[in-house]
Amino acid sequence: MAASALFRRRNRASLLCFLLALLAHGPALGSAQTPVYACDVAGNPALAGLGFCNGSLSWADRVSDLVGRLTLQEKITFLVNSAGSVARLGIPRYEWWSEALHGVSDVGPGTRFSSNVVPGATSFPQVILTAASFNTTLFQAIGKRWGRTQETPGEDPLLTSKYATAYVRGLQDRDDGDKDRLKVAACCKHYTAYDLDNWKGVDRYHFNAVVTKQDMDDTFQPPFKSCVIDGNVASVMCSYNQVNGTPTCADPNLLAGVIRGEWKLNGYIVSDCDSLDVYFKSQKYTKTPEEAAAKAILAGLDLNCGSFLGDHTEAAVKAGLVDESAINKAISNNFATLMRLGFFDGDPRSQLYGKLGPKDVCTPENQELAREAARQGIVLLKNNAGALPLSPTAIKNLAVIGPNANVTKTMIGNYAGVPCKYTTPLQGLSAVVGTTYVAGCQNVGCGTADVEGATKAAAGADATVLIMGTDLSIEAESLDRTELTLPGQQQQLVAQVASASKGPVILVIMSGGGIDVGFAKDSDKIASIVWVGLPGEAGGGAIADVIFGAHNPGGRLPMSWYPQSYADKIPMTNMNMRPDNGTGYPGRTYRFYTGETVYTFGDGLSYSKVSHELIQSPAKSLSIPLHADHYCRSSECRSVDAAEAGEICGGSSGIMELHLKVQNDGEGMKGSHTVFLFTTPPAVHGSPRKQLVGFEKVWLEAGGEAVVKFNVDVCKDLSVVDELGNRKIALGEHVLHVGDLKHSFTIGI
Q1: Which residues are annotated as catalytic?
Q2: Residue from 19, 76, 1, 26 nearest 238 by CA
């Protein structure tokens, strides 16, 4: 379920399956007719005596009452996404599978658009571009609404964690502040180490991700942990792949042990669609389907997207492979979520969101938010001699060239629905100045380029905007990339147009993943490079806003862009994050990668020059109080276990304050600026070369300034994970980075 790209995020917190209880009137208790909504006490007084319909009871008591009234066969129908109905108890059918990755989607059976009721819904930028805004407030605002790089928030665990938390809370938190109830039940997926769809004959249905304990705990797991603990997400979805020899959906350590046990999930664990069938038939993990069903339930799976548990659980019980009590536990978690959604509270029209209707969809405010989200995410990567912004009065004729210049569906990527409306890049630019449009290629594959037409248009224009890149035919679910360069003859087209153009040439890249545009970065004939991700339904307007200066670009890359040599040398099947000097393996992501990049995580320019000044810095040294007989007092230690750091961990003495003055020099435009706080820890335990520990988005008027404050938690932000997965505080020199500023301090004992 979802899409894919070449070297995608090393942690998965991509979102979201969502649930909405849209129900109405039901029949009398005992009727064979299927009710429309549950617990219609007003229309069916006999239901009033059922404990699960009694809103004055606790969730636990209501769930226990319901489970106790069901037969084994009825219980099993609640283990699958298309949950069964129980007419004798006034319970209608329920469909768990709906999608809202970046707006309501029609992928899956739960949501359908109707031309005469709700023909479309706001389609926001794909996750990867929204993440480029580094604006947690925006993440949550959209939430009030993953080949697969496009579906992820990028390569950094902290950014991904903050995106997941904010988006989930935006979806789930109710407007009345009731923390026990849910507006929507969100789902973080795909758990875990799910980084390959279909690459050179290796697919996700057969792939065993071999992951070290260290990489698991400091890269793959943190976003899921934040999603559960900080976001209080209602669900986590396990993935198709195996991790270290065990299918994730059959791993009791990953499911019951970590999600339910360590992180205390308040909700349910669901499989990716047909995952159980995959590990039985494709991975041949068990000999019989009954064993496969039992292993999933015993591992802690509550809900099966698909029919596998519905088909094989009863036989598993009869064979003694799983007890009915385990099924009770699973469906109890599912029912508790439905209780929190109000499914068993009667007529939904009388509930908090019962008056929502078509008038609340595609509102002007939501459509403007989609445009603003795209604006905030767009990244300016190159801007020679201030070529951008273009002047809307000086430009009389703009050449708009490229296979992505007049696209619609490309802008919304995968797991999208039907947008309210589209504004293509051509439409957005044409609304500002006169344009001459040449596609240049029939599609992004660009088997043959219309060089003659494109160069003629560029030669006669005051400026040229080339809109190139990829679409779902290049990077999508079950389609990993093997090439990082522009597809087909796109690069040749760009180069020849740049040579022919009489005015500045702006290269716009529309893509989910990174592109090797080293040729353009180094070219004097290409003045500017802009990455627009997959910018959603209003992407064309947002692109025009940036190019013509109505918006000062403030986006920053959420993932590194690598040269083609990276794809040629690094197999996607190697899950190791850290470099290996013995084999020449360079590692992955900006945190560990030792090779060359085209652009790196956090890169981005604006139309303003912003300076940073350190106005309050932490002390130059910090001592960890250890008891008198601690072994580190008599032996040379390179790190200390965080659990042994005493008051440093959990107390105010472990918090370091960093205050910065951030100033717009006034020569450019007003706009937003992202302040990144990175750390370089001592070189122990294969620690990251550099790691993000915080970021803040600030708005600066031209010539304006702001004070940004970071509270750095020594144990949480500055610790590292050792080879066994233990959290350690590294002893020695630590360096904090903000832009060109550096502050060094020492941690000792």
Answers
A1: 272
A2: 1
